[in-house]
Amino acid sequence: MILDFIFALTSHDLAIDLGTANTLVAVKNKGIVIREPSVVARHRKTKQILAVGGEAKKMLGKTPRTIEAFRPLNDGVIADFDATEAMLRHYIQLIHENPRSIIPRIPRPRVVVGIPSGVTEVERRAVSEAALAAGARSAYLVEEPMAGAIGSKLPVEDSRGSMIVDIGGGTTEIAVISLGGIVINRSLKIAGDELDEAIITYVRMKHALLLGQPSAEATKIAIGSAFHTREEKYTVVRGRDLESGLPKSVKLSSSEIREALANPIHEIIDAINETVEEIPPELIGDVLEQGITLAGGGALTLGLDKAVAEATKMPVWVSPDPLTCVVRGAYILLSNSKLLEKVKVTGGLK
């Protein structure tokens, strides 16, 4: 108890959205302080961490044989435990750095971490253990659709049903929430990464051009869309010609990228429709009245809300700042212990 009190005085409680593509960290009473790609660069033999976040992402596809740059999470779950621990430790220490302090601070924060709803018990424990190994004194796990709904200011504790679709980098989380719990949920391993892969495959098949993942992601953000738009947009991509092996540039249109994204987007919409069909009769009226909330980076895809609304025949709206919904929800839970106790899937591990 005395140690907990001391650590509470010397540490900042943290809310963490540990995403496949990006990691966001919010500090209690301060808000979001870190928005970085979930990428780590390390030496292959010594395993020494060389860079984390944005600096590591710049190295993707450009490293020599002695260095590897990669994402330590895959499809929303930990693929490399040591790298994930190192990434979390780096951010925890970064937040607690105080250049004016003579005595070094030993951070032991309390953390709330957002995780996909479809992970197994083993995968949940891996996230908890990674957070604790990185320096947390206690780790509470909250399912991403619940955290996203709280961050979107949906009435999660009411008897009214709320539906949220969180399209992240590795997973799409679909959930119907009522009375502080998830009534129906579906975790789909088709999300932002699959959209990037769809663009890479399309450009390779149609233009015989090999693109890297960062270039595909930049193209998706620049001209990607899920619904027909009046204005045609264009962007130039550069890669390797598969026929000659030489560098090549190709001008792509927004209609081409929309065609490339059609299949994965249709799969996401089909999963949303299947979830809607399973909603209990007493809740379907609430969802129809309130509509479907889109969150996550995928929600920023131009016209996606219109495509989902047309397919489901329901109102659809995009949460304000959808990229930060999960971390904002976890941030709210830092100050609301009663709600945290109700919605956590596991926590308090030390």
TrEMBL record:
Protein name, entry field: Cell shape-determining protein MreB
PANTHER family: CELL SHAPE-DETERMINING PROTEIN MREB (PTHR42749)
Lineage: Bacteria, Candidatus Gottesmaniibacteriota
Annotated ATP binding sites: 20-22, 169-171, 297-300
Subunit field text: Forms polymers.
A molecular function (GO) term: ATP binding
Location of the protein in the cell: Cytoplasm
Annotated Gene Ontology cellular component terms: cytoplasm
Keyword annotations of the record: ATP-binding, Cell shape, Cytoplasm, Nucleotide-binding
Pfam families from the UniProt entry: MreB_Mbl
Function field: Forms membrane-associated dynamic filaments that are essential for cell shape determination. Acts by regulating cell wall synthesis and cell elongation, and thus cell shape. A feedback loop between cell geometry and MreB localization may maintain elongated cell shape by targeting cell wall growth to regions of negative cell wall curvature.
SUPFAM superfamilies linked: Actin-like ATPase domain
GO BP field: cell morphogenesis; regulation of cell shape
Domain of life, source organism: Bacteria
Residue ranges the record marks as coiled coil: none
Keyword match rRNA processing: no
Keyword Magnesium: no
Stated family: Belongs to the FtsA/MreB family.
Gene name of the encoded protein: mreB
Organism encoding this protein: Candidatus Gottesmanbacteria bacterium RIFCSPHIGHO2_02_FULL_39_11
